[in-house]
Amino acid sequence: MTNILVFGAGKSSSYLIKYLLDCSSKQFWQVTVADSDLNAALAKIGDHSFGTAVQLDIHEELLRKRQILHADLVISLLPPSLHFIVAKDCIDLRKNLITASYLSDEIKGLHVDARNAGLLFMNEMGLDPGIDHMSAMKIIDEIERLGADISSFKSYCGGLVAPESDNNPWHYKISWNARNILNAGKSGAHFMEQGFEKTIAYQDLFNEYELIKVNGLGSLAAYANRDSLSYRTYYGLEKVKTMLRATFRYQDFCIGWNAVVHLGLTSDEMKFTDLRLTYFDWFMKATELFEGNTPSQKIMNVTPKEKELAMNLIDWLGLFEKEEINLQGEMSSADILLQRIEEKWRIEEHDKDMVVMRHEFEYARKNIETHLSSTLIVKGEDKTYTAMAKTVGLPMAIFAKLLLTNKIKNLVGVQIPIMKEVYKPVLKELTTFGIEFTEDYDG
């Protein structure tokens, strides 16, 4: 029997585990779900005869290696910083690995070892990164077959709340790892626009958004995401004049979060231990370097243009309340803010989230300029079966099936899903789950 080991039973795991279990009886797979929270793992496998739940602290080396040793394939849904621990074990124990996270320099450094061992470490096999790579490469290959020259490529993606469940002023609810939301943008952004390289620092990122019209949704705000230029080589777009990868949010979110960032509330530097500390006390101490004796004065200093809206948004988060913080040992401002947004942006049982992805291409063939947009909109079912879990989990699950059934061969080393033999079958099957792009041409 083939044993698939899944590390992590969090928010993004529901569709992945369900897909693997649905295939398990036919494929004769055993699906082992390991998580520090045994109840979370048990909830995901239910009473399925081919599912096993294991309680495991990823830092317990012997238990971790024992599970990996008995696996035929490892899928990691752990926080990005923990993938490398698993990856090193997979090298030592000769196991293939799939993750949905951005390819880190540490894992990239394992390429030669993985290749020499005949192993495949497929990274960025989720939504963004993941579906964005595969859908973009499909279009890029099609345009190049026409003999056209691509001059501009922009890619946008965001996990949002569906309009029917949008009932808070931030227009946002958490459908994935809240820590990732808190840390979004901390590395700044590097991209190319009209032939000029541009860099935006974290402090300015949420103020430097553009508004993009999406059919049926109106305008969404998009802020630049990480290092867009690193993908020029992967995509074969070294000659483009514009190259941008960006994240979708609603405009009010960007205005509010811009104030939060400028006030230093996402910082890990300042620590707090006072057990009687209230949110108001924390806010004033965390922002003591900013002029003003009141929250309003401090916010005015960092966001003078949208002061009233920013003030209302931060107030709605409860950051000015006299309520005592549930301090758990020493906590940073980022820790305290994380605790608050997990409560305030909590997705309720029957809430629906939404994933929106959009690619925009400009290319020329025989002196005819063409603009192509390709748009994906996916809505979730409820709190468990979210659009985020669907679009993150299913690409990994489908790829796992392709790998285990020998539909993917001779692919080794550390990779991301940009090759035809990967994106064609994965995108094709994703359409059966309603994950399908709509294309519009102009020109």
Report on this structure.
This protein is globular. The protein has helices at 14-27, 38-45, 61-69, 83-93, 105-108, 111-116, 131-145, 178-183, 202-205, 231-235, 251-262, 279-286, 295-302, 307-316, 333-344, 387-404, 420-431; strands spanning 2-7, 29-35, 51-55, 73-76, 96-99, 120-122, 149-161, 189-193, 196-200, 210-214, 218-224, 226-227, 242-249, 271-272, 331-332, 353-365, 368-379, 413-415, 438-442. Helix 3 crosses helix 4. Helix content is 37%, strand content 25%. It has three domains: 2-123, Rossmann fold (3-Layer(aba) Sandwich); 131-257 and 348-386, 2-Layer Sandwich (Dihydrodipicolinate Reductase, domain 2); 271-330, no CATH class. With 443 residues, it is an alpha/beta fold. The N and C termini lie far apart (54 Å).
Low-confidence stretches: none
Major beta sheet summary: 7 strands, parallel
- What is the averaged pLDDT score? 95
Number of domains: 3
CATH class of the largest domain: Alpha Beta
Q: What topology, given as strand order, has the largest sheet?
A: 3-2-1-4-5-6-18
Our Rg estimate from Cα atoms comes to 23 Å
CATH superfamily of the largest domain, please?
A: Dihydrodipicolinate Reductase, domain 2
Number of strands: 19
